[in-house]
Amino acid sequence: MPWRTAATTARSGTAVSVSATYETGPVYLAASYELHKDVNRTSDADGTVLTINGHDYAFDSTVGIADEYGWRFAGQFKAPTRTSIGGLYEDLRRGVSYHYYDERSRKAVWLVLSQELTAADIPPRRLCTRVQSPGSIGEHNIETTPGADTSTNMVTGMFRHAADDQISFYVVYAIQANHPAAHYDLGAGGRSITTDCHDATQIAAVNPVDGTFSAGGPFCYPGGTLQAASVGMTYKF
């Protein structure tokens, strides 16, 4: 889920969640639901007004606090050839009266294919697609446009070698292909190591159109294609 640099309020009231799993032989199934009451995102609500068919829709406290909820279904099958095929579908919603500024609601599909080469070598591949949100919060250099393409696709690959029951080594590669108005990131979320948001706010910027100077650069870079690779070791106690 995309973050906004100035989002100092993302608290909620009561949170309720439930999940269930079922496993038999090579089949694994899971389902879950979660509800967060009165999620406060009023720091995103900067008073922007969008006029649609002669009617004004303000980005204010009216849509700044709302319930957020979602559900998820997943399944995986492991064939006798040591091939695992799985998938996941999730649907996240924000209960607001209009969605022109709603970038939280979205659907996503996740697919995984894994083939064990040996008992110690496993190279899974994953594909994740997030369908566009109904709105955009329009922060800074991201425009608030109804129907803006905020969808994204991510493909990952990993090779893991288990030295024994406790130690394993891995190599991971990922590519995140954002559509023009999307700013999904790779790596840790929030204010940690990110590349599309939060990394330019202290950089001076010049508007190429009129040459005006700004002491702070853009908060987010929508539409980028991000790539990353990492290597590591896991030790199980």
Briefly say what this structure is.
This protein is mainly β and 237 residues long. Helix content is 2%, strand content 49%.
Overview of the molecule:
2% of the residues lie in helices and 49% in strands. It has one helix at residues 61-64; strands spanning 15-24, 27-40, 49-52, 55-58, 65-78, 83-94, 106-115, 121-122, 124-130, 152-162, 167-178, 205-206, 213-214, 225-235. Mean pLDDT is 77; it is low at 1-9. By secondary structure, it is an all-beta fold. The chain contains one helix and 14 strands. The strands form three sheets. Strands 1, 2, 5, 6, 7, 8, 9, 10, 11 and 14 form a ten-stranded antiparallel beta sheet that branches. The protein is globular, with a radius of gyration of 21 Å.
